[in-house]
């Protein structure tokens, strides 16, 4: 059984898709589960191989699987639909993650927790795992891993892009990944609804701290009016980062019933002139992530969640 976090992105889908494929090439079976609808932009990772998780008995009865691999997360609050099943399951687990936040999903006497916060992506870790074992990589695996490498580094422009990532990317290109076609399929095939959603979001944009902080909102009404899905909001938090002098960008998404998702992004100190660790800010509210990209969930009214997160960022900026 392969699982990853809710709201799947390129790194979670790429790592699950690649691991599923290599296990199948070894003559074994692997089932990759999603808690959400498969994002349209990641069709290149063969969506027909993923199973939508549900609470029905046939999604994961005890005894069907030999083990569980959890990818791109080590936080219970990111795999909420499977928490009860996983806590009750006696199956051994392998957890592969490059985030700093950890909720002890692994039991030391039974499981293997592979954590490497210095890796730019979980797909990068999976590539090194394959390389160490000598498992064969085909074009389908290379495509999936390249998606995770590229998307988690902002197409190799974020500060987490290093020589390790680029060496892996070069090897995947040699194996058959096509950077141009992958980019086009992810970033140049969006539905009109995504553009309408972006326009609605930018209409809420306001600047704080003399233009160093950008704050934006998304509400259920905006999704409905645009005809957009939750997956259409991926990466929209990055939009203000092209503005000169910007240090931190915040996007608050109101899912209704007092459930708020906050996405945070910050620039590297070499560009911004100051070092804002958004993962530390997220952790102070029970969230987590990376130094430059993090998130947190609030169960509170939108105005209260915004007030608290903006206050914390303004304090950090001072």
Provide an overview of this structure.
The chain has helices spanning 10-25, 83-88, 122-133, 139-152, 163-175, 179-187, 192-202, 220-226, 269-272, 278-283, 302-317; strands spanning 2-4, 32-34, 50-52, 68-71, 93-97, 112-115, 206-208, 213-218, 248-254, 259-266, 288-289, 293-299. The chain has 2 domains: 2-187, inorganic pyrophosphatase (n-terminal core) (Alpha-Beta Complex); 192-317, Diaminopimelate Epimerase, Chain A, domain 1. It has 11 helices and 12 strands. It has 318 residues and is an alpha/beta fold. The strands form 3 sheets. A 6-stranded mixed beta sheet has the order 7-8-9-10-12-11, sandwiched between helices.
Order of helices and strands: EHEEEHEEHHHHHEEHEEHHEEH
Level-2 CATH architecture of the largest domain: Alpha-Beta Complex
Q: What amount of the residues lies in strands?
A: 15-25%
- Structural class assignment: alpha/beta
Biggest β-sheet, characterized? 6 strands, mixed
The CATH topology of the largest domain is what?
A: inorganic pyrophosphatase (n-terminal core)
How are the strands of the largest sheet arranged? 7-8-9-10-12-11
Terminal CA distance reads 46 Å
Quaternary structure classification: single chain
**Radius of gyration from the alpha-carbon trace, in angstroms:** 19 Å
What is the CATH class designation of the largest domain?
A: Alpha Beta
Number of helices: 11
Overall shape: globular
Uncertain residue ranges: none
Number of domains: 2
Q: What level of helicity do the residues show?
A: 25-40%
Mean pLDDT: 92
